[in-house]
UniProtKB/TrEMBL annotation:
This is Cephalosporin-C deacetylase. It holds the Pfam family AXE1. The active site is at residues 180, 266, 301. InterPro entries: AB_hydrolase_fold, AXE1_dom, CE7. Gene3D superfamilies: alpha/beta hydrolase (3.40.50.1820).
């Protein structure tokens, strides 16, 4: 795919005005203030056939107290509390199998990989968490209170709380990480949880959403286009709902240092939408957090792939090592 978005010099200065609801903070405060359930519902050891990595099947309370599954992994035979990385998966993925995502635990971190409620049927090795109301980018899209991402983002916030109660995890040193949808979830958590240590965001989804829908027909954004092509009279309600979930708004409120990665030929999450989040990151804070960005001019949604993973490991080691 050839470059199709703004040139890099314009992207670096791209700070768009993204419409934010007046009650954005009130909406999220009330959502997260729902009657609390115990953070952890169940923790069971799992045989993963890996000599140097221990694993547990975790169930924690997500949105509405509903059970959300996750894998928790730790380096074996290490007793002291370790800094934790809470990871969120991409659109259509679930938590998969316990031996799949080993980068963070291999680097010496405690690692919690959250399952995506209602997802897991498109990529990888599946998921284990149903969503009673159904999943997908258009599910419940006519009301922010019914929207799927209200539930999923709340799950992500609750995953951080759960990670702080897991055996062998240091509750004072928690990072969040994700790619694509996972990057969007990491941004949302960064804006809603004030005491994270670090944030790692790659090719973030759900940022500057209206521009993304205008720029690409690729899924998942293309699902919004398809929906509106049928429901021609529902545009105002759809855009109002999505305004409560735009990663640019969460990015503005973030407090933790952040590391981003963006491919300039990304036709899934267009680069200008990721730059919008990056350039707004932390601006609403009196002491703006530090941020850094890896740009991959000739890559698409895969951005830096293993090169980027190496950059993330080095960056995070400086903050959690």
């Amino acid at each position: 795919m050839a470059a199709f978005d703004l040139p890099l010099d314009q992207l670096e200065r791209y700070v768009p005005v993204v419409g934010e609801p007046d009650d954005f903070d009130t909406f999220w405060k009330s959502t997260l203030a729902a009657p609390p359930a115990p953070a952890l519902l169940d923790v069971q050891p799992v045989e993963n056939d890996l000599r140097w990595i221990d694993c547990w099947d975790v169930t924690f309370a997500g949105f509405g107290g509903q059970p959300i599954r996750a894998w928790y992994s730790r380096p074996a035979e290490i007793d002291e509390p370790l800094p934790a990385v809470v990871e969120f998966a991409g659109y259509g993925r679930g938590r998969g199998l316990p031996h799949e995502r080993l980068t963070w635990v291999s680097a010496g971190y405690a690692h919690l990989l959250m399952d995506n409620r209602g997802q897991g049927d498109r990529y990888g090795c599946g998921g284990d968490t149903p969503d009673p109301a159904g999943a997908g980018i258009t599910r419940g899209i006519l009301s922010p209170y019914d929207y799927y991402y209200r539930r999923l983002i709340t799950d992500a916030v609750r995953a951080v709380a759960a990670s702080r109660t897991l055996p062998g995890a240091d509750p004072a040193r928690v990072a969040v990480a994700g790619n694509s949808q996972g990057g969007g979830l990491a941004l949302a958590v960064a804006g809603l949880v004030p005491d994270l240590t670090a944030v790692l965001v790659s090719a973030p989804f759900l940022c500057h959403i209206r521009r993304a829908v205008d720029l690409t027909d690729n899924a998942p954004y293309g699902e919004i286009t398809d929906y509106l092509s049928v429901h021609r009279d529902q545009g105002p309600a759809v855009w109002t709902t999505l305004s409560y979930f735009d990663g640019v708004h969460f990015a503005r409120r973030a407090t933790a240092p952040a590391h981003f990665g963006i491919g300039l030929r990304d036709t899934v999450c267009p680069p200008s939408t990721g730059f919008a989040a990056y350039n707004h990151y932390g601006v609403s804070r009196l002491a703006r957090p530090s941020r850094s960005l890896e740009v991959y001019p000739f890559n698409g949604h895969e951005h830096g792939d293993a090169f980027h993973s190496r950059a993330q490991l080095r960056w995070l080691a400086e903050r959690l090592g």
